[in-house]
Design goal:
226 residues; mainly alpha; Amidase signature (AS) enzymes; 3-stranded antiparallel beta sheet; 8 helices; 3 strands; 51% helix; 10% strand; globular
Length: 226
């Protein structure tokens, strides 16, 4: 077994990745945006406003540079190992009613739930969008600074995003619980070695089977008339 510190080598491109994905969502919404913002969750609506303010050619270029760095780091890791084992998600599970899984969650939840705060955030993003037209490097710089100063904000999905970026197969295996909450073990393999990952997951399932549970169906009563 070889220990590879993937927390250091691959860059955290969650912020840029999110901006790009939200930009594609605008294409799906088309002319319905922004009038449809009230029909979306607060997180998605604010995220779209954020993408409008932050995503431009400079941001896309920064994301591409980070993607290349990520590919190089992953390729280097697979030169030394056949499989990479990591937590499926670097953050613990969070409450269903919470917007994020990090220590700043109460602040972010307040921004999403408080009407005046939401409008203030949108106003600030609108100002950033205007400034970005004059200073095109500004949005990418802001995202970079936010990722460095508040890494917890972009940790959610950081270990699964890298699999999507690199394009290698991965499987998440139930690995027990922490404080009663389930955690997953993510196993990443080389390109086109999906079958090997299925074998690994099957071997773990046979040795340490996990319960297959589902919510109980509600009881139904039927009234018939004669």
């Amino acid at each position: 077994m070889v220990e590879v510190d993937l927390r250091v080598e691959p860059p955290n491109l969650a912020a840029q990745w999110m901006m790009g994905n939200l930009a594609t969502l605008l294409a799906d919404l088309g002319s319905a945006w922004p009038a449809c913002s009230g029909d979306l969750t607060d997180e998605v609506a604010v995220g779209l406003h954020l993408a409008e303010a932050m995503y431009n050619l400079r941001t896309a270029a920064a994301a591409e540079e980070l993607r290349i760095q990520a590919n190089e780091a992953m390729a280097k890791a697979f030169d030394s190992v056949d499989l990479i084992l990591a937590a499926t998600n670097p953050e613990p599970a969070f409450a269903a009613e919470s917007a994020t899984s990090n220590e700043q969650a109460p602040i972010i939840d307040k921004l999403f739930s408080d009407g005046p705060a939401r409008y203030l955030v949108r106003a600030l993003l609108g100002g950033t969008r205007i400034l970005g037209a004059v200073l095109p490097k500004l949005p990418s710089a802001v995202l970079g600074q936010a990722s460095e100063r508040f890494p917890d904000l972009v940790n959610m999905g950081a270990l699964t995003i890298i699999a999507n970026i690199y394009g290698n197969p991965a499987v998440s295996i139930p690995a027990g619980t922490v404080d009663g909450l389930p955690v997953g073990l993510q196993v990443l393999g080389r390109h086109h070695e999906d079958a090997l990952l299925f074998d690994v997951a099957l071997a773990v399932e046979r040795e340490r089977p996990w319960p297959l549970t589902a919510a109980s169906a509600p009881k139904r009563s039927f009234v018939t008339e004669s």
